[in-house]
């Protein structure tokens, strides 16, 4: 019996690596610390009441944001470990299997568990406020979406210490991801972690489309919406068509692994190219899913800190919608070398080049907005200006890759790695950092320190260029992706050392940002006006942080830049209007989303280890939660007028 238990433990837990043991200790100490603090401060009821059961879009957005920053830390550590190995391959810091695991988890975490939730954080925090709504269209579904993401991410990250991490690359191409070459549970952790969180992402896409189309303030026509809201709409349109493809693709891969389906096995009558087509039908639109909201963020920041209306509003809207359509017609450029044929390659080369046109329109519009504007070099504006040259380089290298004959040389080289990071860090990460600095006072009621922010900005930017510019040269020199060791005589060593130094500079930038947050909690400049940037859109018309109900009185919109127009009108009237309040209808908190996600986690864990009994137990629990929700009739309440008046009076908002 004892021998069986030891054998099970050796297969169930990851052993043999000092870093793994260190992670085990860190996880246990962190959990013990959290439990101790919550118990000592008697905060368990507060945690359940205020956060675990909340359906408030603002709190859900903050939880998305915090989860994303934790995933940025985990994915960043993975990146540094890879860079150490590549800078000093003779040290054998990582063996080939461990390198492949870290390579796989880094890409998956950064795209699906860092960029996506940070994007959804902005969706939740900003969109209802920008359109003058009190909540999203489906608050309960919004909570379900977050908890599915969270427990999907936890399931994926659990593979680091239990069962073993996936090691077939961040897109898990077969046959490497099949049972023959990935027999352990790592690949199933990948499938079910992404499946569970992907269901939440799809639900969020549906939710925010309905919120934008049906819950805008009176008078806010579609062409009156802020550009960030437009970018969210464009992104969600891509989500609802792209994520079902991912769901089906991973389900087919699981059928191959669990039922021996041979859908993607050449010797069994399948075709791995079918998987590659399907995964990139999701994978390339995914790039635009995360970059479009960054474009929306830049549009808001440029207009605010140039103190001008955005140049070319209609062309900005049309370019975003064109990108959302063209994004479905570019996926084959990821495998020009796979022998699809000249006609196919030409079509996708043209569509890939064409999608650069609406992107270029945006850059020129931002520059024209800044032209002769009264530019304020705030932290959000610094990140915005840094983005422009970075993204121009990324776009130019993307056009190089879009030419099929040239791609035969660049394909699978470090040139492609540099381009990919140039676009996703310079475009997405810089954009989301700009958004964090811009909306931080609205979320938390205080600004982040400027001096620390500039240290973070410069270390991030210098580190970025030092890290990725050498990788273009390495690509031309023949260094391929997914390589973990090489001979120093090949001439790649010095550039890899430089690239690693740059990666550590970016890590220092992240430390400065963490320091900023901790410093700001105690010493940050408090926002007592609700409008610290002299903003143009409706989120700046309410206190910081916003009250639970957002707007005591829903505003009436007459055109673009609604809050700017209201401020100009008030200057003319030179009188403060007295608000007439009425009771506000709001949704009640619910514990069902959290409990349902726990059952999804149980089902995913069971399917990962092929324990059918546990999977059935988890799915039964999910069904029971859905049934319980269907009988939940008392799911809303009204905030009385006296409470609204008291809240508004406490922040000086009652005339």
From TrEMBL:
The keyword Membrane applies. It comes from the Bacteria. This is Quinol oxidase subunit 1. Pathway: Energy metabolism; oxidative phosphorylation. Its EC number is 1.10.3.-. One of its GO terms (molecular function) is copper ion binding. It catalyses: 2 a quinol + O2 = 2 a quinone + 2 H2O; 4 Fe(II)-[cytochrome c] + O2 + 8 H(+)(in) = 4 Fe(III)-[cytochrome c] + 2 H2O + 4 H(+)(out). It is found in: Cell membrane. Keywords: Cell membrane, Copper, Electron transport, Heme, Hydrogen ion transport, Ion transport, Iron, Membrane, Metal-binding, Oxidoreductase, Respiratory chain, Translocase, Transmembrane, Transmembrane helix, Transport. The chain crosses the membrane at residues 20-41, 62-82, 102-127, 139-162, 189-213, 225-255, 275-298, 310-331, 346-368, 380-404, 416-440, 452-472, 492-512, 579-603, 609-628. Gene3D superfamilies: 1.10.287.70, Cytochrome c oxidase-like, subunit I domain. Residues 40-558 form the Cytochrome oxidase subunit I profile domain. InterPro entries: Cyt_c_oxase-like_su1_dom (IPR023616), Cyt_c_oxase-like_su1_sf (IPR036927), Cyt_C_Oxase_1 (IPR000883), QoxB (IPR014233). Binds a copper B center. Catalyzes quinol oxidation with the concomitant reduction of oxygen to water. GO terms for cellular component: plasma membrane; respiratory chain complex. GO terms for biological process: electron transport coupled proton transport; oxidative phosphorylation; respiratory electron transport chain. It is a multi-pass membrane protein. It is an enzyme of class 1 (oxidoreductase). It comes from Priestia aryabhattai (Bacillus aryabhattai).
């Amino acid at each position: 019996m004892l021998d069986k238990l030891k054998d099970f433990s050796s297969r169930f837990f990851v052993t043999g690596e000092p870093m793994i043991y260190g992670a085990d200790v860190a996880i246990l100490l962190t959990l013990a610390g959290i439990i101790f603090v919550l118990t000592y401060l008697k905060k368990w009821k507060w945690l359940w009441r205020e956060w675990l059961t909340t359906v408030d879009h603002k709190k859900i957005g903050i939880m998305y944001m915090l989860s994303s920053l934790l995933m940025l830390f985990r994915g960043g550590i993975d990146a540094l470990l890879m860079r150490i190995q590549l800078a000093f391959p003779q040290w054998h810091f990582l063996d080939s299997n461990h390198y492949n695991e870290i390579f796989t988890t880094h890409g998956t975490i950064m795209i699906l568990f860092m960029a996506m939730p940070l994007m959804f954080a902005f969706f939740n925090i900003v969109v209802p406020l920008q359109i003058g709504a009190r909540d999203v269209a489906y608050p309960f579904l919004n909570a379900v979406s977050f908890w599915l993401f969270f427990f999907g991410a936890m399931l994926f990250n659990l593979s680091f210490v239990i069962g073993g991490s996936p090691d077939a690359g961040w897109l898990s191409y077969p046959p490497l991801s099949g049972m023959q070459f990935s027999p352990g549970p790592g690949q199933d952790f990948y499938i079910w972690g992404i499946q569970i969180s992907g269901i939440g992402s799809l639900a969020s896409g549906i939710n925010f489309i309905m919120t934008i189309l049906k819950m805008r303030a009176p008078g806010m026509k579609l062409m009156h919406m802020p550009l960030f809201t437009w970018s969210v709409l464009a992104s969600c349109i891509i989500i609802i068509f792209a994520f079902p493809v991912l769901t089906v693709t991973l389900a087919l891969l699981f059928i191959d692994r669990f039922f021996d389906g041979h859908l993607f096995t050449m010797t069994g009558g399948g075709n791995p190219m079918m998987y590659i087509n399907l995964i990139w039908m999701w994978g390339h639109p995914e790039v635009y899913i995360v970059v479009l909201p960054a474009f929306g963020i830049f549009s808001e920041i440029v207009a605010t800190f140039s103190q001008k209306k955005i140049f070319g509003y209609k062309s900005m809207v049309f370019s975003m919608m064109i990108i959302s359509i063209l994004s479905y017609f570019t996926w084959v450029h990821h495998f020009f070398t796979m022998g699809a044929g000249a006609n196919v390659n030409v079509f996708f080369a043209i569509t890939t080049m064409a999608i650069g046109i609406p992107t270029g329109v945006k850059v020129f519009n931002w520059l024209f907005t800044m032209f002769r504007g009264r530019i304020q070099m705030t932290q959000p504006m610094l990140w915005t200006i840094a983005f422009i040259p970075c993204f121009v380089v990324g776009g130019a290298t993307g056009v190089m890759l879009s030419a099929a004959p040239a791609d035969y040389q660049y394909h699978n080289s470090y040139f492609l790695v540099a381009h990919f990071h140039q676009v996703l860090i310079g475009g997405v990460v810089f954009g989301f950092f700009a958004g964090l600095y811009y909306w931080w006072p609205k979320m938390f009621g205080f600004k982040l320190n400027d001096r620390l922010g500039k240290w973070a900005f410069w270390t991030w930017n210098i580190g970025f260029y030092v890290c990725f510019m050498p990788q273009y040269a390495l690509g031309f020199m023949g260094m391929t992706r997914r390589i973990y060791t090489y001979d120093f005589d090949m001439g790649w060593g010095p550039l890899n050392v430089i690239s690693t130094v740059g990666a550590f500079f970016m890590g220092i930038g992240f430390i400065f940002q963490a320091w900023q947050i901790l410093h700001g909690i105690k010493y940050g400049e408090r926002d007592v006006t609700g409008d610290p940037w002299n903003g143009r859109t409706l989120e700046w018309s309410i206190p910081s942080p916003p009250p639970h109900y957002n707007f005591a009185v829903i505003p009436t919109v007459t055109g673009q830049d609604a809050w700017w127009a209201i401020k100009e009108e008030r200057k003319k009237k030179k009188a403060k209007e007295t608000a007439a309040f009425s009771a506000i209808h709001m949704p009640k908190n619910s514990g069902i989303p959290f409990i349902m996600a726990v059952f999804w986690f149980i089902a995913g864990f069971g399917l990962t280890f092929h324990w059918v009994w546990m999977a059935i137990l988890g799915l039964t629990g999910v069904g029971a939660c859905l049934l319980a929700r269907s009988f939940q009739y008392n799911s809303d309440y009204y905030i009385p007028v006296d409470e609204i008046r008291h809240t508004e009076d406490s922040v000086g908002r009652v005339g």
